[in-house]
Amino acid sequence: MTGVVYKSTGSWYTVKTQDNTFFDCRIKGKFRMKGIKSTNPIAVGDVVDFDIDETSDAVTGSIHNIHDRKNYIVRKSVNLSKQTHIIASNIDIVFLIVTINNPITTTSFIDRFLVTAEAYHIKAVLLFNKIDTFDEAMADDQLYLQYIYTQIGYECLRVSATEAKGLDALKAMMKGKVCMFSGHSGVGKSTLVNALEPTLNLKTKQISDLHQQGQHTTTFAEMFDLSFGSKIIDTPGIRGFGIVDMEKQEIKGYFPEFFELEDQCKFNNCLHKDEPNCAIKKALEEDKIAWSRYKSYLQILEGDDEQYRNDMYADGRNQDLE
Length: 322
Hints:
With 322 residues, the protein is an alpha/beta fold. The protein has helices at 107-119, 136-152, 167-174, 189-196, 204-212, 248-251, 256-261, 279-285, 291-301, 305-310, 317-320; strands at residues 2-8, 13-17, 22-27, 47-53, 60-66, 72-76, 84-89, 93-98, 123-128, 155-158, 178-182, 222-226, 230-234. The chain has a six-stranded mixed β-sheet, sandwiched between helices. Strands 1-2-3-5-4 form a five-stranded mixed β-barrel. Strands 6-7 form a two-stranded antiparallel sheet.
């Protein structure tokens, strides 16, 4: 039988077949993903083949094959530096939920996420949540961030899950697509899913508690079918986002505003760091490229993993926007 993985709890996978039947499945024997050293060989969104095991009282399945993935979002496991964690696969569009405060989402985190989405060819949209809680300073910060990323070419939406603001525009963008919500714990992912589809009634507190217990290295993601013709993958909060397996020369290609200008650099292999006649540094000095983006680029280039391990609580908003 063939189906799509709708839920992963580490050892068990909930798989939905084409006739809308759900089966609880496990991985058969020594099944391993080729070429991927991952903490989770199978992720939500994967298409898998499985056999029915009727030897026990409950009808369960044994997964013996995974179909080729169209794409996937992967990050470095925070506590297992040599391991990666696949958050979800076969995604049409990913929404990174950003909050200005409570909690702070830094540009470093945003940029690491966007770089990964670019690398795996997944359309990314920034979703600024909790706009109903903004004071004047927070509103200014949000509009500044929106300006930075809109100029680069990323779509940005402003929403309030609790007051149902901006949800119609979000639904229109999600319709007919497999979508993923991601972001820090506390940004309102599950609350937003509930606002889009109230009948789901997701438990928001449970996810927060899991995060507080330090279980962020294991993602218990789940996919839901929505009534307006969309699928949403809801994921627990991510503290930090470690970049996986990128060569120094390729990183610049995942910053669209760099890629647009780099043919004007003197050297073809310019890393935009110490080289003379660098078009990126010239644009930076002319305020055509945001300093926060360049700072993120240097951190990724230099393998500064401490930034993502310490996460957003280590730095204040003002320092991040310098």
